[in-house]
Design goal:
Layout (H helix, E strand, L loop, with lengths): L2 H18 L30 H20 L7 H10 L2 H16 L3 H22 L2 H12 L8 H17 L5 H31 L2 E3 L10 H13 L6 E3 L16 H12 L12 H17 L5 H6 L7 H32 L8 H16 L3 H5 L4 H17 L2 E5 L10 E6 L5 E10 L9 E6 L10 E8 L12 H18 L15 H12 L5 H7 L11 H9 L5 H18 L11 H11 L17 H4 L9 H18 L5 H12 L7 H9 L6 H6 L5
Parallel strand pairs: 5-7
Antiparallel strand pairs: 1-2, 3-4, 4-5, 6-7
Helix pairs in contact: 2-3, 2-4, 2-5, 2-6, 5-8, 6-7, 8-11, 13-14, 13-21, 16-17, 16-19, 16-25, 17-18, 18-24, 25-26
């Protein structure tokens, strides 16, 4: 055999082996658009091996596209600069949208390792774009002459937002300052990723193992079976395991009769992340993030990180946020005082003479509610079977409001067997997009509830939306129905509000699509949908006994609706506590970062008269995922700011006739379809005809008549 033939033979063998590997161009599913309906990700093809090569090539391609735009010798135009940027990076976006959905919803050690490696690289990649001087020069040129470009409103908003992104990233800083900004961004990215991973580890570290079933007295047989299954999955034979959730409080605290077990469960939740008994300690991450964020803000000319973070939001300034929160505190404290008196009285009736403790509040609050409204949560759960709530509650309300329908399908691959997929049809029968529902908790999923997008709507890219809702409902034991709490019901409606915000998006540019709105506006559409859950004509349609098929009795239904205002002082108090802790961390300067996380948190709560030891913040700093691993740093106030809009919009819609297509279509047209294509508050005021009325929030929470 001659050398040429040997070479050809070897080359053929090498290529054959290369083509059999999952990370090559020929069979990496991210390298081409998915052929599934709506370009949904094909989870029969995607493996962990595909992410790294997709990220590597995606970054390389994106930077090449950006360099071509930046070095274009032609005069900058909206089309050859801004629109070209919108078209760029599609491979990277495809891979990232799937990857980051799974880092929250279904992660594993491989995914976590990839996330740790690439988080700083993605931060650097973003800086390579936003700190590209030639590219910024083109964007700035267009921005300076924007009034002469004859752009429509959406294009003008995109140009202004793009320019602002560059400026806020540091495009106007000196080379030395930009170098430091890059270091900060990479370090922050690494720290937030580490924080997220540690939170997941805490859910495994902080489980409460119960060996005696009698200690679980008060729980339903369904929940006891779930605790037994959780123990078996973790290797605890003849035991029961109670897992913590993402908030300080725990839903089982309302049911467990054993006070000592309630204390153990509460302490497992509240004392996580502080290195207790040699466990996970996230406090150093909290301190370093506060310092780095303060330095970033200072480099950009802001007094504090809170000033930097709130500047582009609808609130505008930290003072506006603090004033709004301060106005709520007196009414909340009055309600908490009244609630605590009722709870203390109930404890005495129950023969407990000890001082009220945080692990007592929800247990006796539930007794107060049962006494006042004569029902208990376990009875209510029998009327809320998950599938029925989804189809005859959430989907029903969406159909009544917007005319849309959901058809389940089994031909779309999913990333976990629990996930369900639905085609969403518009009122005229056309296909809007896909909706994924992932409702049950598992060890591979972080706590909480959220909405993500696999594909964002865009006319420019000819994309229809593919969105997902993720919750953490305790799964039933095998063979049992999935009976859920009314809090779970409300959360399902809430997350569907985010979903329709993405599904109804009708914009040209992907950067302005769906939920790409200010952080303190994005929770408005989701919170707005919550209130349909308690509308009698909706409740009657889905509150059906899972065995008898009978509708919920009117008397119980009335009590359930009336009880919505129960314990709202507590709920609002713990939320405000977390919100103001978030604000105080981000009102610091680099020179005054404290040494002690817990002491500073306590001092911050006392400063705002929110230091009741029986009602700790909804999230304490060591496990405040929204702020130290999510996108809500100095923005956690957004939930209640958005709730002001939601309460006002719902009250307005009720005045206009309530659950009607006319009302839904108008709200869809003015709010849900616009994405970030217009100023958020302008959209709201055009829809409402006036500024929001704050009193509707107090009424919604039962804090005012």
């Amino acid at each position: 055999m001659n050398r040429t033939l040997i070479f050809i033979t070897l080359l053929t063998a090498i290529l054959a082996v290369a083509c059999s590997q999952p990370n090559t161009m020929s069979n990496n599913p991210f390298f081409e658009e998915s052929t599934l309906p709506f370009e949904a990700p094909d989870f029969t093809e995607i493996t962990n091996d595909h992410y790294v090569p997709a990220f590597e090539r995606g970054i390389e391609e994106h930077l090449a596209e950006i360099e071509e735009i930046a070095s274009n010798s032609e005069e900058p135009t909206f089309e050859n600069t801004i629109v070209a940027m919108e078209r760029s990076g599609q491979l990277l976006n495809r891979a990232q949208s799937v990857f980051y959905s799974l880092t929250s919803a279904h992660t594993n050690e491989e995914i976590q390792a990839i996330q740790s490696e690439f988080a700083p690289r993605f931060a650097a990649h973003s800086d390579d774009i936003l700190l590209n001087g030639d590219l910024f020069a083109r964007v700035d040129d267009l921005y300076q002459k924007r009034e002469s470009l004859d752009l429509d409103a959406e294009a003008m908003k995109l140009l202004e937002d793009t320019h602002l992104d560059f400026v806020r990233a540091g495009a106007r800083l000196t080379d030395e300052e930009q170098s430091r900004m890059r270091e900060i961004n990479e370090r922050v990215s690494s720290l937030t990723t580490e924080f997220q991973e540690l939170l997941l580890e805490m859910t495994r570290e902080r489980v409460v193992v119960v060996e005696d079933e009698e200690m679980l007295d008060g729980l339903s047989q369904n929940r006891i079976a779930s605790a037994r299954a959780a123990a078996e999955s973790r290797g605890h034979e003849d035991s029961y395991v109670l897992t913590i959730n993402n908030t300080t409080r725990h839903p089982l605290l309302a049911s467990l009769n054993n006070r000592d077990l309630r204390k153990r469960l509460w302490e497992a939740s509240a004392y996580r992340g502080i290195g207790q008994d040699g466990g996970i300690d996230t406090r150093p991450i909290v301190l370093e993030l506060a310092d780095l964020r303060a330095e970033r803000a200072s480099l950009l000319g802001y007094d504090t990180y809170a000033d930097y973070a709130i500047d582009p939001q609808t609130a505008g300034t930290p003072d506006a946020v603090l004033n709004m929160l301060s106005d709520l505190i007196p009414a909340v404290n009055e309600n908490v005082k009244a609630e605590s008196e009722l709870i203390t009285e109930m404890m005495l009736r129950d023969g407990v003479n000890d001082e009220l403790q945080p692990w007592d509040w929800e247990y006796y609050a539930e007794k107060v509610r049962a006494d006042k409204y004569a029902f208990d949560e376990e009875e209510v759960r029998t009327y809320f079977e998950l599938d029925n709530v989804l189809k005859n509650g959430v989907f029903y309300a969406m159909e009544q409001l917007y005319g849309i329908t959901f058809e389940e399908r089994d031909d779309i691959p999913v990333y976990h067997p629990d996930v369900r997929v639905f085609t969403v049809y518009d009122h005229n029968g056309s296909e809007l997009g896909l909706f994924y529902g992932d409702y049950f908790s598992r060890d591979s999923k972080r706590g909480g509830a959220w909405m993500n997008s696999f594909v964002q709507q865009s006319e420019l890219l000819n994309n229809k939306p593919v969105v997902m809702n993720v919750l953490n409902i305790t799964p039933p034991a095998e063979g049992d129905p999935a009976l859920i709490t009314f809090d779970n019901v409300t959360t399902m409606f809430h997350e569907m509000g985010h979903a329709v915000h993405g599904l109804f998006s009708d914009v040209t540019y992907p950067s302005l699509s769906g939920t790409s709105v200010p952080r303190d506006f994005v929770e408005f559409p989701s919170t707005f949908e919550e209130d349909w859950a308690i509308l009698p004509e909706v409740l009657e349609n889905y509150a059906i006994h899972h065995e008898s098929g009978e509708r919920i009795p009117q008397e119980l239904l009335d009590k359930l609706v009336d009880a919505r205002e129960h314990n709202q002082g507590f709920d609002t108090y713990e939320y405000l506590g977390a919100t103001l802790v978030d604000m105080e961390w981000h009102l610091l300067n680099t020179g005054n970062i404290p040494d002690d996380v817990i002491e500073y948190e306590d001092r911050s709560l006392a400063k705002h008269n929110l230091d009741n030891p029986v009602i700790p913040p909804r999230y304490k700093s060591p496990y405040f995922s929204h702020v130290f691993s999510g996108g809500y740093s100095a923005n956690y106030y957004a939930y209640i700011w958005s709730e002001i809009l939601a309460a006002d919009a719902f009250a307005y819609m009720r005045e206009q006739g309530g659950l009607t297509r006319e009302n839904g279509d108008r709200y869809r047209e003015h709010i849900l379809s616009k994405g970030g294509s217009r100023d958020a508050m302008e959209l709201y005021e055009e829809y409402r005809g006036q500024e929001p009325d704050v009193s509707n929030l107090l009424k919604r929470r039962g804090l005012a008549e």
